[in-house]
């Protein structure tokens, strides 16, 4: 949807990411085709492709075949946290003015398969790609553990509440990060844990990395940069975040990311807020915990 902000769209984001070595995940709902986004990118630039599985599986299979053929995408990101549209009030208001049927988000999610399962969907995916799989939208430590049981096919998880756009009062990624640390830290040994949502400062990124995140994602900041200044705006966004991260690490006395660790963050206020109920970690348990509000 990036062209809503600037005509350069997702290709502009790709150009902006280039000199920072930032990964870019191209969305199913991207306003440019994956072929257009990667067109001028050097071989070294890394892209993932985000998948909303469609009820019409044939169309998802055709899209995966196209991504495989493209040869420039290095991993597939399966989004789990938006099987249906959330209640997007701005969209609903816009609908009154511009559309007669269904809000923008209702229309965007029409056709998305809301019935994904750990067994059927991952097996289906393995039949259509050999690329590493990243599961995006994990919001409980139980789901993180389930994902770890599917490593190494599942290479990473993104702790995310879809930028707070799917379900209000859903926990922020840092809660889930702390939940994993508390209840099932072995997850960190099995797969990479990435986080997104509300990363606005270099300090946000550094704190997440101190607590075990291997990667940190941004959604809106990249779009704001793009909308304000095209490719240069995206570069400026990444430069600010990069400078802030360096300053933060210098002031913490950390020379490399390997020096970052939980000893550098005071989480005591947050510990009060994270889930403190039953663990539900028994693999044979019939309780499947999808979310905790
Ligand atoms: C305009 C917009 C469109 C988005 N579209 C998708 C999408 O198609 N697929 C997806 O997995 N996440 C989507 N997201 C969520 C982002 O991938 C990401 O999880 C979120 O924006 C991170 O929070 P932040 O915006 O606070 O950085 C979208 C977010 C925004 C703001």
UniProtKB/TrEMBL annotation:
PROSITE patterns: FMN_HYDROXY_ACID_DH_2. Its cofactor is FMN. It holds the Pfam family FMN_dh. Keywords: Oxidoreductase. GO terms for molecular function: oxidoreductase activity. It comes from the Eukaryota. The keyword Signal does not apply. Residues 1-270 form the FMN hydroxy acid dehydrogenase domain. PANTHER family: CYTOCHROME B2, PUTATIVE (AFU_ORTHOLOGUE AFUA_1G07200)-RELATED, S -2-HYDROXY-ACID OXIDASE-RELATED. This is FMN hydroxy acid dehydrogenase domain-containing protein. It comes from Penicillium antarcticum.
């Amino acid at each position: 949807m990036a062209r809503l902000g600037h005509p350069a769209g997702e290709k502009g984001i790709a150009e902006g990411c280039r000199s920072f070595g930032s990964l870019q995940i191209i969305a199913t709902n991207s306003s440019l085709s994956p072929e257009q986004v990667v067109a001028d990118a050097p071989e070294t630039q890394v892209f993932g492709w985000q998948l909303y599985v469609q009820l019409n599986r044939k169309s998802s299979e055709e899209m995966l075949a196209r991504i495989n053929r493209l040869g420039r995408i290095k991993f597939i990101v399966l989004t789990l946290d938006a099987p249906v549209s959330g209640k997007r009030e701005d969209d609903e208001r816009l609908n009154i003015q511009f559309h007669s049927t269904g809000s923008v988000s209702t229309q965007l999610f029409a056709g998305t398969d809301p019935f994904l399962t750990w067994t059927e969907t991952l097996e289906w995916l393995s039949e259509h790609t050999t690329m590493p799989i990243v599961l995006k939208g994990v919001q409980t430590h139980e789901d993180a553990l389930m994902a770890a049981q599917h490593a190494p096919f599942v290479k990473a998880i993104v702790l995310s509440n879809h930028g707070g756009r799917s379900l209000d009062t859903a926990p922020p990624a840092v809660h889930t990060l702390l939940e994993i640390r508390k209840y099932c830290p072995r997850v960190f040994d099995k797969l990479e844990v990435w986080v997104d949502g509300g990363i606005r400062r270099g300090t946000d990124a550094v704190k997440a990395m101190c607590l075990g995140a291997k990667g940190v994602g941004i959604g809106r900041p990249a779009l704001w940069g793009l909308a304000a200044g095209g490719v240069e705006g995206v570069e400026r966004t990444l430069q600010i975040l990069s400078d802030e991260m360096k300053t933060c690490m210098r002031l913490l006395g950390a020379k490399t990311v390997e020096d970052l660790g939980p000893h550098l963050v005071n989480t005591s206020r947050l510990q009060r807020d994270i889930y403190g109920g039953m663990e539900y970690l028994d693999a044979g348990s019939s309780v499947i915990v999808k979310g905790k509000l």
